[in-house]
Amino acid sequence: MLNSMKTIICGLLVSAMFCGFAAVNMASAKDFKLNMCAMPEHETFFPWYAKKMGWDKEAGLDFNILYFESGMQQLEALPAKQWDVGLTGGVPYTFGALRYGAYLLGIGNNESFCNSVFARPDSDVASVKGSVAGYPEVYGKADQIKKKVFLVTTVSSAHYAMSSYLNIFGLKDSDVIVKQMDQASIMAAFQSGVGDFACLWAPYNYTAVERGWVEVANVDTSKRALPITFIGGKDFCDKNPEIVAKYLDVMFRGIKKIATEGATDENVKLFQEMYLDWAGMEYTFEAAKKDIEMHPVIQYEEQLKIMDASKGESEVQRWERLIAEFLHANGRLTDAEFDKIKGGECITDKYLKMVKTPIK
User: What are the helix and strand counts (H, E) for the chain?
Assistant: First the structure.
């Protein structure tokens, strides 16, 4: 009798264990693990905060936010399917569309004000402002810039800032000396006296200002626009449209928070936490506040308008075409490559229209 009771009890325990394992597996199975590429920049706040608040789980997703130093590093990882969706600059996105048919799903922010070219305060360039008509905030003259050394992360938003700056003076990349470096290396090299110009994106440009370096131009003062894009791998998006729509839904929750609240003390502290927690970067309160203020975001309803190509080229398609034209003019795209992407066929509002509204 005792042995029979033991057998029954053991059976119940084993059954309970299996039920427990099954419950755990069902709980984890309901959250789709979404691998996401990101960089230590303003827009990473959206997925980081969403994960912190559990918004991804509310949408049935599990965000895995992968760190990359540059957009081109992100693209190198796309063929191996290391990530499914993510956030990247308007310049590297062009190559994502060209090489892999990657989709532009929406806009993370407008970073035109935060991609800049810097000179040292003792540079002769820093003493000449507004020499070209129509560009009152731009420093320098052509003969001060030609054949000088530019430290830049090539094929990036900072590279676009550099080439936009050169274009004002009728110059191209081939008229100067381009030294490829990642952003952290540029900061160290320029501080030690290497190069004549440093081309930076946020948050490195805030540190540059704190060090007294002179911003000679940015994308906005050069009369151009530069978006951060929500990017998606073509195969993944084609196979998982509902997952992509959920991802966008969560992103727009973060955008709505920043758009409606702005640089409150709470949000500034959250940005500081995000940079330290995810990127290992210490941020002053002032720099984090500026990061929010200098990156205008576009809410869902407005993005539907700027992504709409039903009556011809959309606003976002125009932005990306201008970037492609810059790459083409500087020899980064062949005629055939430019013709392939200039129409913006990979820029789609299909997934935006699938987002459930209103945004929470």
Answer: 16, 10
Q: What does the DSSP 8-state code read for residue 116?
A: E
- For residue 327, CA distances in Å to 113, 159, 161, 173, 268 come to 20, 10, 12, 10, 35
283 vs 239, higher pLDDT = 239
Long-range interactions of 74-80: CB distance < 8 A, separation 24+: 74/37, 74/39, 74/231, 75/99, 75/100, 77/37, 78/102, 78/233
**Residue pLDDT, tens place only, 47-104:** 999 999 999 999 999 999 999 999 999 999 999 999 999 999 999 999 999 999 999 9
What is the token pair recorded at 306? 């700027």
Categorize the per-residue pLDDT at 1 as very low, low, confident or very high, splitting at 50, 70 and 90: very low
Distance CA 309, CA 346 (A): 12
Residue (of 81, 68, 276, 280) closest to 156 by Cα position: 68
Q: What is the mean pLDDT of the chain?
A: 92
Among 7, 80, 79, 82, which residue's Cα sits nearest to residue 37?
Answer: 82
DSSP 8-state secondary structure symbol assigned to residue 127: G
SS3 85: strand
CB 252 within 8 A of CB 359: yes
| pLDDT(229) > 50 | yes
Residue ranges of the chain that CATH labels 3.40.190.10: 113-218
Give the residue among 16, 261, 233 at the shortest CA–CA distance from 105.
233
Q: Quick check: 60 and 290 in contact, CB under 8 A?
A: no
CB 150 within 8 A of CB 123: no
CB 31 within 8 A of CB 61: yes
Name which of 255, 190, 215, 249 is nearest 43 in CA terms.
Answer: 255
- Contact call for residues 163 and 118 (beta carbons, < 8 A): no
DSSP single-letter state for residue 108: E
Name the architecture of domain 113-218.
3-Layer(aba) Sandwich (3.40)
User: Does the predicted TM-score (pTM) go above 0.70?
Assistant: yes
CB 291 within 8 A of CB 284: no
Q: Which helix (H) or strand (E) holds 354?
A: none
Check whether 354 has a pLDDT greater than 90.
Answer: yes
Strand 61-67 with 32-38, pairing: parallel
CA distances from 193 to 119, 133, 151 (A): 11, 31, 11
